[in-house]
Amino acid sequence: MATWLLSAVAFAAAAVVTILAGFGTIWPRRIFNTGCFVETDQPSGYVVSHPGGSTTYWHRLPNCDVTRIDPNWGMIVAVGLVMCVLVLLVSAIAWAMTYRIAAHVIDGDRPTLPSSGAIMRAAGRVLGWGAVLAACWIGGWLLFVVAGVVLVGVAG
């Protein structure tokens, strides 16, 4: 239970940080202009179904900008990827600790899982080599773009 709670808290914090990095705020009413939508009786447009079975229909006003803040998509992607890695790392550590504790309770002093240091070293290696491969991939694409620009320049 505590493992799921820790993973959920890490995920929620990562989502908040990603939204804050991309929009500059986490308050939906500052991001979206809800005044652009008006309720109507016509069964078209946006439909909202309520638990009691009632349904309301909404139309968007023409020439109304729904998003008050233009998101920084590059920041959302970059911070989102970093937060995803951190959430996976926190969750992996929490699960490893849970399994270590369970193994210790069930088997006594006989270790059935690797030590925490070995798990951390393995996680560090995975992240490190992942960063190296990502850098190589980005470098390869950069060389490809530079080579394309040079060839276009030489070809005239």
What ranges have pLDDT less than 50 throughout 5 or more consecutive residues?
A: none
Strand order of the largest sheet: 1-3-2
Report the count of strand segments. 3
Radius of gyration: 25 Å
- Output the structural class: mainly alpha
Globally, the shape reads flat
Sum this structure up briefly:
The chain has 156 residues and is mostly helical. The protein contains 4 helices and 3 strands, in the order ααβββαα.
Can you characterise this structure?
By secondary structure, the protein is mostly helical. The chain has helices at residues 2-23, 28-31, 73-107, 116-155; strands at 37-40, 46-49, 55-60. The chain has a 3-stranded antiparallel β-sheet, with no helix packed on it. β2 (46-49) and β3 (55-60) form a beta hairpin. The protein is flat, with a radius of gyration of 25 Å.
List strands and helices in order, with pairings.
Blueprint: H1 2-23, H2 28-31, E1 37-40, E2 46-49, E3 55-60, H3 73-107, H4 116-155
Antiparallel strand pairs: 1-3, 2-3
Helix pairs in contact: 1-3, 3-4
